[in-house]
Amino acid sequence: MARKSLRLSDDLELAILSAILSGKCSPDVVRPEELSKAGKPVLYAAKALEKPSYAGVLLHVTEVQGLDKVTARDYLLSVQKAGADTDAAEVLQCIRDKQQLVDLVNAASDMLSTSKGRIDLGLLSQHLERDTTGGYGGISPLSERLKDGFPEPPQGLALRSLPNLYEKTGGVHGSWVIGGEPKLGKTAMSWQIALDVSRTNKIPCIYYDLENSIGVMIDHTRQIYKGDIKRVREATERIYYRDSIRTLEADLQRIPPPALVVVDHVQRLPGNVEFRKAGLDRWIHRLDSLKKRGYTVLMISEIGRAQYNSDAYIGAFKETGEIEYAAETAIQLLWGPDRKLVEAHVVANRHRPHTGLISLLQRYNGWAFREISDQGEVPTEVD
Fold first, then answer.
1. How far apart are CA 372 and CA 358, in angstroms?
2. Which of 133, 158, 166, 122 is nearest to 290 (CA)?
3. What predicted TM-score, i.e. pTM, was given to this entire model?
4. Angle at CA 9, nearest 5°, toward 4 and 14?
5. 41-45, 138-142, 261-265, 369-373, range with the lowest pLDDT
6. Left if phi > 0, otherwise alpha if psi is -120 to 50, otherwise beta: which for 185?
7. How do residues 188-216 score in pLDDT, each as one tens digit?
8. How many helices, marked H, and strands, marked E, lie in the chain?
9. What are 244-259's pLDDT values in tens digits?
10. What is the DSSP letter of 64?
11. Per-residue confidence at 20, pLDDT binned at 50, 70, 90?
12. Does residue 135 carry a pLDDT above 50?
């Protein structure tokens, strides 16, 4: 499909041509089809001349291209006046905004032609996240950021109910993945983390539950807090529950970062059955990209049947290899001694040195975990 172009407004056209003729940007920032009938010859002249100037461009458009001298001179005077009236940085920002809009239009056109008329707002949002400075500004050497000394090391979201896990991982940050066999407590741990993080850090959590139902999760929460509805309401005042992820982009528009996004679980994400693995990898990549927008992401994953009762390792997660690259912290749950406790193994910890067995977990009130140390339980529960 031919790439679309957008006709520039008269003011923006004059400002961009002025920036080109004054050497503030390259002639390649604009395409001829984006310009008016009067603007195109000026762009052609600027590209043809090694060092374009107003006098040189006027000579080229009149003597080489054969335009009327009075018309060409009047148009170039308008270009020159636009340059005097417009800040160069403002023009460059307009150029970046224009290119971003063109990219969005072309991306949407591609989707309409290849996806049966459907537009993926999540993929369009990735175009908005791109750095469109184009080399014209907004960049400085790293040394400038260190002129006042080293900043504090990055710290993730606080997690009070699992203190050992919090200490060893540095908190919930970037992209987290929790995996394990069925019935081990992946959902229980992810729900506990959502309740804990949202209250401790006072940030919202969007919980996409693709396996259970809101009635089930409310009942689990009732058991955690022993039927105290006041505590349940306090614990869930920043929790936003969804049973479908199709509203993801709309939800993100309503709930800006910082926020926690939980997906339970990735193997139930919608996609084409025939191209299941490729679809999951695209979902993982899309969710992982949310951290660049300021969100923290927690994904729950099954592990392959062949990995049941085996040692914990990053390659055990089911159906998608993208998790191995996306996860900054990956936790695999295994049955502990006599299947009475659950072992939490950190199998990926990109920003901390700790991997391996981190905590022994014991269920309490049916649907939450407490950590067990060598000296007995750590007396910390979901507040």
1. 10
2. 122
3. 0.66
4. 115
5. 138-142
6. left
7. 999 999 999 999 999 999 999 999 999 99
8. 14, 10
9. 998 898 899 899 999 9
10. I
11. confident
12. no
Question: Cα–Cα distances in Å, from 54 out to 153, 198, 254, 292?
Answer: 52, 60, 49, 43
Element (H, E) at 335: strand 329-335
Q: Edge-to-edge, what's the strand order for the sheet holding 260-264?
A: 239-242, 205-209, 260-264, 296-302, 175-180, 329-335, 342-349, 356-364, 368-373, 376-377
Distance CA 183, CA 367 (A): 11
Domains in the chain, please, with CATH?
A: 10-129 (1.10.860), 163-377 (3.40.50.300)
C-alpha span between 31 and 44 (Å, rounded)? 10
What is the rounded CA–CA span in Å between residue 91 and residue 102?
Answer: 17
Inform me whether the pLDDT recorded for 380 exceeds 60.
Answer: no
pLDDT the model gives residue 321: 67
Copy the structure tokens of residue 80.
Answer: 């020159």
3-class DSSP assignment, residue 129: helix
DSSP annotation of 157:
B
Give the separation between CA 33 and CA 6, rounded to whole angstroms. 8
Given this model, what pLDDT does residue 342 score? 94
**Contact criterion met (CB below 8 Å) for 322 and 276:** no
Q: Which one-letter amino acid corresponds to residue 190? A: S
Q: Which residue in this structure is represented by tokens 């992810």? A: 190
Q: Which two tokens stand for residue 236?
A: 């869930």
Please state, in angstroms and rounded to a whole number, the distance separating the CA atoms of residues 96 and 261. 30
The per-residue pLDDT for 123 is: 55
Whole-number mean pLDDT of the chain? 82
Axis-axis angle for helices 214-224, 186-200 (nearest 10): 70
Contact 303, 318 (CB under 8 A): yes
Q: Is the pLDDT of residue 134 over 50?
A: no
DSSP 378: -
